[in-house]
Amino acid sequence: MAHLLVIGASQGIGLETVKAALVAGHRVRAFARSAGKIALSDPNLERFPGDALSAPDIAGALEGVDAVVQALGVPVRDLLGPVRLFSDATNVLVPAMEQAGVRRLVAVTGFGTGDSRAAISPLQRLPFRLVFGRAYDDKDAQEMRIRRSSLDWTFVRPGVLTGGAATGRYQVLDRKSSWRNGLIARADVAQFIVREIAEGGHVGRAVVLISHALPL
Asked: What region holds the NAD(P)-binding domain (predicted)?
Protein backbone atom coordinates (compact mmCIF):
# COMPACT_ATOMS: atom_id res chain seq x y z
CA MET A 1 0.00 0.00 0.00
CA ALA A 2 1.22 3.49 -0.85
CA HIS A 3 1.24 6.75 1.06
CA LEU A 4 -0.45 9.27 -1.23
CA LEU A 5 -0.56 13.04 -1.18
CA VAL A 6 -3.72 14.35 -2.83
CA ILE A 7 -3.55 18.07 -3.64
CA GLY A 8 -6.98 19.62 -4.06
CA ALA A 9 -8.52 17.02 -1.77
CA SER A 10 -11.53 18.90 -0.43
CA GLN A 11 -13.84 18.58 -3.43
CA GLY A 12 -14.36 17.21 -6.92
CA ILE A 13 -11.98 14.61 -8.29
CA GLY A 14 -9.57 15.24 -5.42
CA LEU A 15 -12.14 14.27 -2.80
CA GLU A 16 -13.26 11.25 -4.83
CA THR A 17 -9.62 10.17 -5.11
CA VAL A 18 -9.22 10.39 -1.34
CA LYS A 19 -12.27 8.15 -0.92
CA ALA A 20 -11.14 5.63 -3.53
CA ALA A 21 -7.60 5.47 -2.16
CA LEU A 22 -8.84 4.83 1.37
CA VAL A 23 -11.12 2.06 0.14
CA ALA A 24 -8.10 0.51 -1.60
CA GLY A 25 -6.20 0.55 1.70
CA HIS A 26 -3.74 3.35 0.97
CA ARG A 27 -2.63 5.96 3.46
CA VAL A 28 -3.80 9.37 2.29
CA ARG A 29 -2.60 12.86 3.13
CA ALA A 30 -5.44 15.13 2.01
CA PHE A 31 -4.07 18.57 1.16
CA ALA A 32 -6.33 21.61 0.74
CA ARG A 33 -6.89 24.97 2.35
CA SER A 34 -10.09 23.55 3.83
CA ALA A 35 -8.71 20.07 4.54
CA GLY A 36 -9.89 20.25 8.13
CA LYS A 37 -13.49 20.23 6.93
CA ILE A 38 -13.24 16.97 4.98
CA ALA A 39 -16.05 14.89 6.44
CA LEU A 40 -14.48 11.44 6.23
CA SER A 41 -13.50 9.12 9.03
CA ASP A 42 -10.68 6.67 8.42
CA PRO A 43 -7.53 5.84 10.39
CA ASN A 44 -5.50 6.08 7.18
CA LEU A 45 -6.61 9.65 6.48
CA GLU A 46 -4.50 12.65 7.42
CA ARG A 47 -6.01 16.09 6.83
CA PHE A 48 -3.28 18.55 5.88
CA PRO A 49 -4.42 22.19 5.58
CA GLY A 50 -2.23 24.16 3.22
CA ASP A 51 -1.93 26.41 0.21
CA ALA A 52 -0.84 24.82 -3.09
CA LEU A 53 1.01 28.05 -3.94
CA SER A 54 3.08 27.97 -0.74
CA ALA A 55 6.48 26.29 -1.11
CA PRO A 56 6.81 25.60 2.64
CA ASP A 57 3.32 24.04 2.76
CA ILE A 58 4.06 21.79 -0.21
CA ALA A 59 7.48 20.81 1.12
CA GLY A 60 5.93 19.79 4.42
CA ALA A 61 3.18 17.83 2.73
CA LEU A 62 5.69 15.83 0.65
CA GLU A 63 7.50 14.39 3.66
CA GLY A 64 7.21 10.62 3.67
CA VAL A 65 4.85 10.18 0.72
CA ASP A 66 5.29 7.80 -2.20
CA ALA A 67 3.21 9.51 -4.87
CA VAL A 68 1.30 12.72 -5.55
CA VAL A 69 -2.08 13.30 -7.15
CA GLN A 70 -2.57 16.89 -8.32
CA ALA A 71 -6.30 17.52 -8.72
CA LEU A 72 -6.74 21.26 -8.57
CA GLY A 73 -9.83 23.12 -9.70
CA VAL A 74 -11.10 26.69 -9.97
CA PRO A 75 -14.66 27.97 -9.39
CA VAL A 76 -16.75 28.56 -12.49
CA ARG A 77 -16.93 32.26 -11.63
CA ASP A 78 -13.16 32.51 -12.06
CA LEU A 79 -13.10 31.12 -15.60
CA LEU A 80 -13.84 34.48 -17.18
CA GLY A 81 -10.76 36.16 -15.76
CA PRO A 82 -7.05 35.33 -15.92
CA VAL A 83 -6.29 31.81 -14.62
CA ARG A 84 -2.84 31.04 -13.20
CA LEU A 85 -3.54 28.50 -10.45
CA PHE A 86 -2.61 25.38 -12.40
CA SER A 87 0.75 26.59 -13.71
CA ASP A 88 1.68 28.54 -10.57
CA ALA A 89 0.94 25.57 -8.30
CA THR A 90 2.87 23.24 -10.61
CA ASN A 91 5.85 25.59 -10.60
CA VAL A 92 5.89 25.12 -6.82
CA LEU A 93 5.17 21.39 -6.79
CA VAL A 94 7.60 20.07 -9.40
CA PRO A 95 10.86 21.38 -7.91
CA ALA A 96 9.65 20.45 -4.44
CA MET A 97 9.02 16.87 -5.56
CA GLU A 98 12.40 16.70 -7.28
CA GLN A 99 14.14 17.97 -4.17
CA ALA A 100 12.23 15.58 -1.90
CA GLY A 101 12.92 12.60 -4.15
CA VAL A 102 9.22 11.89 -4.72
CA ARG A 103 9.04 10.87 -8.37
CA ARG A 104 5.49 9.68 -9.07
CA LEU A 105 2.94 12.30 -10.10
CA VAL A 106 -0.56 11.86 -11.51
CA ALA A 107 -1.85 15.24 -12.69
CA VAL A 108 -5.51 15.76 -13.56
CA THR A 109 -5.83 18.24 -16.40
CA GLY A 110 -8.67 17.67 -18.87
CA PHE A 111 -9.74 16.74 -22.38
CA GLY A 112 -8.68 19.65 -24.56
CA THR A 113 -5.36 20.18 -22.81
CA GLY A 114 -2.11 20.00 -24.74
CA ASP A 115 -2.11 17.74 -27.77
CA SER A 116 -5.70 16.62 -27.09
CA ARG A 117 -6.99 20.07 -28.11
CA ALA A 118 -6.85 19.00 -31.75
CA ALA A 119 -9.33 16.22 -30.96
CA ILE A 120 -12.12 18.66 -30.01
CA SER A 121 -14.81 18.49 -32.66
CA PRO A 122 -15.47 21.63 -34.75
CA LEU A 123 -18.94 22.07 -33.21
CA GLN A 124 -17.54 21.92 -29.67
CA ARG A 125 -14.46 24.06 -30.31
CA LEU A 126 -16.00 27.55 -30.13
CA PRO A 127 -18.06 27.07 -26.93
CA PHE A 128 -15.14 25.25 -25.35
CA ARG A 129 -12.82 28.14 -26.12
CA LEU A 130 -15.27 30.78 -24.89
CA VAL A 131 -15.93 29.08 -21.55
CA PHE A 132 -12.73 27.20 -20.74
CA GLY A 133 -10.10 28.90 -22.90
CA ARG A 134 -8.21 30.75 -20.16
CA ALA A 135 -8.19 27.79 -17.80
CA TYR A 136 -6.99 25.39 -20.48
CA ASP A 137 -4.26 27.75 -21.62
CA ASP A 138 -3.01 27.55 -18.04
CA LYS A 139 -3.41 23.77 -18.01
CA ASP A 140 -1.24 23.69 -21.14
CA ALA A 141 1.47 25.50 -19.19
CA GLN A 142 0.96 23.07 -16.29
CA GLU A 143 1.52 20.06 -18.53
CA MET A 144 4.54 21.62 -20.25
CA ARG A 145 6.23 22.26 -16.90
CA ILE A 146 5.66 18.67 -15.82
CA ARG A 147 6.98 17.32 -19.13
CA ARG A 148 10.22 19.25 -18.56
CA SER A 149 10.68 17.63 -15.15
CA SER A 150 12.46 14.44 -14.13
CA LEU A 151 9.26 13.04 -12.60
CA ASP A 152 7.41 9.84 -13.49
CA TRP A 153 4.22 11.57 -14.57
CA THR A 154 0.84 10.64 -15.99
CA PHE A 155 -1.69 13.17 -17.32
CA VAL A 156 -5.32 12.25 -16.69
CA ARG A 157 -7.61 14.13 -19.07
CA PRO A 158 -11.24 13.41 -18.23
CA GLY A 159 -14.09 14.50 -20.46
CA VAL A 160 -17.19 16.29 -19.15
CA LEU A 161 -17.50 15.47 -15.45
CA THR A 162 -20.65 14.16 -13.81
CA GLY A 163 -21.61 13.24 -10.26
CA GLY A 164 -22.78 9.95 -8.89
CA ALA A 165 -21.17 6.69 -7.90
CA ALA A 166 -18.39 4.98 -9.81
CA THR A 167 -19.60 2.66 -12.55
CA GLY A 168 -16.33 0.95 -13.41
CA ARG A 169 -17.44 1.17 -17.04
CA TYR A 170 -15.24 3.74 -18.71
CA GLN A 171 -12.75 3.91 -21.53
CA VAL A 172 -9.06 4.69 -21.12
CA LEU A 173 -8.13 6.31 -24.43
CA ASP A 174 -4.35 6.21 -24.60
CA ARG A 175 -3.82 6.67 -28.34
CA LYS A 176 -4.20 10.07 -30.01
CA SER A 177 -6.28 8.56 -32.78
CA SER A 178 -8.86 7.41 -30.22
CA TRP A 179 -9.21 10.66 -28.28
CA ARG A 180 -12.70 12.14 -28.18
CA ASN A 181 -14.90 13.98 -25.72
CA GLY A 182 -17.49 12.32 -23.53
CA LEU A 183 -19.07 12.09 -20.11
CA ILE A 184 -17.47 10.48 -17.08
CA ALA A 185 -18.22 10.41 -13.36
CA ARG A 186 -15.66 11.98 -11.06
CA ALA A 187 -15.71 8.76 -9.03
CA ASP A 188 -14.66 6.76 -12.10
CA VAL A 189 -11.77 9.17 -12.71
CA ALA A 190 -10.73 8.62 -9.10
CA GLN A 191 -10.82 4.85 -9.51
CA PHE A 192 -8.54 5.10 -12.52
CA ILE A 193 -6.11 7.35 -10.64
CA VAL A 194 -5.83 4.92 -7.74
CA ARG A 195 -5.31 2.01 -10.14
CA GLU A 196 -2.68 3.97 -12.06
CA ILE A 197 -0.78 4.72 -8.84
CA ALA A 198 -0.72 1.00 -8.07
CA GLU A 199 0.03 -0.33 -11.56
CA GLY A 200 1.93 2.50 -13.30
CA GLY A 201 0.66 1.49 -16.71
CA HIS A 202 0.80 4.97 -18.25
CA VAL A 203 3.98 6.60 -16.95
CA GLY A 204 5.12 9.38 -19.27
CA ARG A 205 1.80 9.33 -21.14
CA ALA A 206 -1.50 11.21 -21.32
CA VAL A 207 -4.84 9.41 -21.27
CA VAL A 208 -8.37 10.63 -21.98
CA LEU A 209 -11.13 9.12 -19.85
CA ILE A 210 -14.78 8.88 -20.92
CA SER A 211 -17.75 6.64 -20.22
CA HIS A 212 -20.09 7.83 -22.97
CA ALA A 213 -18.96 9.69 -26.07
CA LEU A 214 -20.59 13.01 -26.86
CA PRO A 215 -22.10 13.55 -30.33
CA LEU A 216 -19.80 15.39 -32.72
From this structure: 8-198
User: What is the Cα–Cα distance from 122 to 124, expressed in whole angstroms?
Assistant: 5
Let me know if residue 57 belongs to a domain.
yes
With CA atoms as reference, report the closest residue to 105 among 208, 25, 203: 203
What pLDDT sits at residue 187?
98
| Inter-helix orientation angle 122-147/85-100, to 10° | 30
pLDDT exceeds 90 at position 117: no
Domain membership flag for residue 178:
yes
Q: DSSP for 128-145?
A: HHHHHHHHHHHHHHHHHH
- pTM recorded for the entire structure: 0.93
CATH number, residue 34: 3.40.50.720
Beta bridge partners of 27: 3
Radius of gyration (Cα) for the chain, nearest Å? 16
Residues 6+ apart with CB under 8 A from 74: 83, 85, 135
Distance CA 77, CA 126 (A): 19
Cβ-based neighbours of 199, under 8 Å, separated by 6 or more: none
When pLDDT is cut at 50, 70 and 90, the band that residue 74 belongs to is confident
